[in-house]
Design a protein that fits this description.
Layout: E1 6-11, E2 17-20, E3 30-31, H1 32-39, E4 53-56, H2 59-65, H3 99-103, E5 112-115, H4 116-125, E6 138-140
Antiparallel strand pairs: 1-2, 1-6, 2-3, 4-5, 4-6
């Protein structure tokens, strides 16, 4: 079970929502409907505390806000839990990582948090939510 995962939700040139998930075995991009169905097939059998939540953040806000120094990838002795990606960490020198603030679905932070049903409703509507947040940027769950 994931504690978090980040994907890009995008409305392609037609009217379809697609999800870019670079870890998805079925490839990328996938239609949002297919990705959601494949990623969450048995939510009716999952306890409420383990139901997926999604933080929808506009791309511009994500780029201006997100900071990760990769400290979440380190063991207590300083070794990496997994090899880090080949690209540089997304942080300026001295900036504290705020990754866990994105992951914490209980505390107010950037974007909007919705459950699976809420995300599906937004995708069907295809329009901005009442707070102006359109699902068109990185989504963490």
């Amino acid at each position: 079970m994931w504690d978090y995962h980040v994907v890009l939700l995008h409305k392609n040139s037609s009217t379809d929502w697609v999800i870019w998930d670079l870890d998805c075995r079925a490839g990328a991009p996938l239609s949002a409907r297919r990705w959601l169905t494949n990623s969450f097939p048995h939510t009716n059998k999952v306890r409420a505390t383990f139901q997926p939540s999604f933080r929808l953040v506009e791309c511009a806000e994500f780029v201006c806000t997100f900071v990760s120094d990769r400290s979440h990838m380190l063991l207590d002795d300083g070794r990496h839990t997994h090899p880090p990606p080949p690209w540089p960490a997304y942080a300026q020198s001295g900036q504290a990582s705020n990754l866990m603030r994105f992951v914490d679905m209980e505390q107010e932070f950037v974007g909007r948090v919705v459950d699976l049903e809420g995300l599906e409703e937004l995708l069907k509507a295809g329009a901005s939510s009442s707070d102006g947040t359109t699902p068109s940027g990185p989504v963490s769950y």
